[in-house]
Structures are given as structure tokens and as C-alpha cells.
Amino acid sequence: TAPRMCVECNQEARELYRDYSRGVIKITICKSCQKPVDKYIEYDPVIILIDAILCKVQAYRHIILNIKVNIHWKLCTFCLLCEAYLRWSRLQDSHQTLDPTDIIRYAKEWDFYQMFGLASLELAAFLSGVFFFLWLTKKDLIRKKTNLHTMLTALLLSGYGKLLVIPAVIWEHDYSPLYINLIEFFVLISNSQAVRGNVLTISD
């Protein structure tokens, strides 16, 4: 099996747990820090999600390095759709008032696709900026394709905070710029924690 990482001290571990007979499972203890390699193995997904929302580096390492989730592209696409719709609704509100129940008319609006393209370009620029910064500071890390893939996954998954625009979409235009700014600030903190956790891990 592929090596895993200790969520506490970043050291590599052979396994997260050992499965004995009759369903008896024992979590592996890290040889470096003498703590469980990944305590989240025993945690309920809701607890893991709460720790991720609290931007705990250990939770990010568990999700990105030890369980290898493959939903980052789907999550990214959904977040971009939400962000594009929010921008599109602002644009439409500044020009004319449309029936919010007219879903077919929404789908035919080219402005929506333009907003989606703009949001995608901004995300691509952000990712390029992060990787360029890492290339300047940690060239050895960026040269490895596995590290690039891990970092890209971390950045895309840590952008889940953009889903908080859904309430703004549901409530139509009853939201304030402060709410949107808080979402952007939260996403930035989440991205920073994801980069911090993974750079430390794959550079040790």
C-alpha cells in the first residue's frame, strides 16, 4: 500500500491502522511523535467536517493525504457555478428585473456563461500564482508531479467555502457585500491552511 502521513508531525507511516481478526482494528502509533498516525480514522464524518471548517491542518491532511478523495474537480465545478450565478444575478439586477422562477430563461442567458468563464479564469490565475510562488520558494517540491497533484487537490478542496454562496442564491438578492467578503476571507484562510499543511508534509 502507498505510504501515509502522520497528521500530527508530518512523518511518513506505513499504515494508518492494523486490522486484526474478527474486525478488531488498532490505530497505528507514530514512531516519531508517539501519537496516533491519523486519529480521524475513528471519527464520524461530521466531526471531520467540523474540524475542516475550523481550518485544522490535521483535518486537511487526513482528507487530502490519507483517504484520497476524488471529488475535488466536481466540487470545484459546483463552486464555480454558484459563484457564476451570484455574479450573473448581480448583473441582471443592475439592468432589469427577471422572474426568478424562469429557469429556462436563466439557462439561455449568455451572460451567465460569461460569468462562469470569468470565475474560471480567476481561479486559474489564483492557482497559477500559488504554484509560481511555490516554484520560487520550493523548487524541489514543485518538480515532482505527485506533489503538484497533491497541492492542486488541496487547493481545490479547500475552496469549499464558496458553497456558502448557496444561501445567497436561495434568498435571491437578500444578501450584503459584507457576507460575500466574509466568504472570500474564509476561503483564503482555508486555502492558506491547506497549502501550509501540505507544503510542510511533502517537503519533509
TrEMBL record:
<keyword id="KW-0472">Membrane</keyword>
<dbReference type="GO" id="GO:0016125">
    <property type="term" value="P:sterol metabolic process"/>
</dbReference>
<dbReference type="Pfam" id="PF04161">
    <property type="entry name" value="Arv1"/>
</dbReference>
<comment type="similarity">
    <text>Belongs to the ARV1 family.</text>
</comment>
<keyword id="KW-0445">Lipid transport</keyword>
<protein>
    <recommendedName>
        <fullName>Protein ARV</fullName>
    </recommendedName>
</protein>
<dbReference type="InterPro" id="IPR007290">
    <property type="entry name" value="Arv1"/>
</dbReference>
<dbReference type="GO" id="GO:0097036">
    <property type="term" value="P:regulation of plasma membrane sterol distribution"/>
</dbReference>
<keyword id="KW-0813">Transport</keyword>
<dbReference type="GO" id="GO:0005789">
    <property type="term" value="C:endoplasmic reticulum membrane"/>
</dbReference>
<dbReference type="GO" id="GO:0006665">
    <property type="term" value="P:sphingolipid metabolic process"/>
</dbReference>
<comment type="function">
    <text>Mediator of sterol homeostasis involved in sterol uptake, trafficking and distribution into membranes.</text>
</comment>
<dbReference type="GO" id="GO:0032541">
    <property type="term" value="C:cortical endoplasmic reticulum"/>
</dbReference>
<dbReference type="GO" id="GO:0032366">
    <property type="term" value="P:intracellular sterol transport"/>
</dbReference>
<keyword id="KW-0443">Lipid metabolism</keyword>
<keyword id="KW-0812">Transmembrane</keyword>
<keyword id="KW-0256">Endoplasmic reticulum</keyword>
<feature type="transmembrane region" description="Helical">
    <location>
        <begin position="115"/>
        <end position="136"/>
    </location>
</feature>
<feature type="transmembrane region" description="Helical">
    <location>
        <begin position="148"/>
        <end position="171"/>
    </location>
</feature>
<keyword id="KW-1133">Transmembrane helix</keyword>
<dbReference type="GO" id="GO:0005794">
    <property type="term" value="C:Golgi apparatus"/>
</dbReference>
